[in-house]
Write a sequence for this structure.
């Protein structure tokens, strides 16, 4: 969660110190920052695992979209997936399992320092047309 008072204080300090080109807010201590293409290196996936369509969901004709927020750690692993959208628990579980196995090159800030970032991923479960 963003501490808005801290953010406003950071903006004021930036203006006073003349450092407005530097990132202003790196999140509360221990909290990842949402990925920002303008101030961070692009998350480059180096290991991908596709979700496995759950057998029972497939047999029942269940389709859907699962949207997750996840954290890329400073080392490039994925942790703490959180469901933003997903109505079928089987599809959600399959999506979380797959995304949790993804690996990335570490995301770096403008100074080149690895950092934890929050990103959103959408997984579509669609059955092939018969």
């Amino acid at each position: 969660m963003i501490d808005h008072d801290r953010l406003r204080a950071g903006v004021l300090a930036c203006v006073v110190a003349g450092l407005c080109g530097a990132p202003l807010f790196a999140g509360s201590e221990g909290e990842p920052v949402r990925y920002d293409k303008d101030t961070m290196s692009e998350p480059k996936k180096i290991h991908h695992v596709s979700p496995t369509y759950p057998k029972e969901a497939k047999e029942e004709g269940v389709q859907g979209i699962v949207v997750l927020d996840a954290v890329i750690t400073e080392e490039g692993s994925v942790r703490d997936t959180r469901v933003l959208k997903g109505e079928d628990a089987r599809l959600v579980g399959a999506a979380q399992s797959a995304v949790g196995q993804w690996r990335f090159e570490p995301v770096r800030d403008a100074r080149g320092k690895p950092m934890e970032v929050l990103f959103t991923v959408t997984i579509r479960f669609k059955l092939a047309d018969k």
Summary: The chain is about 25% helix and 30% strand. The first helix runs from residue 4 to 17. The chain has two domains: 1-30, 32-125.
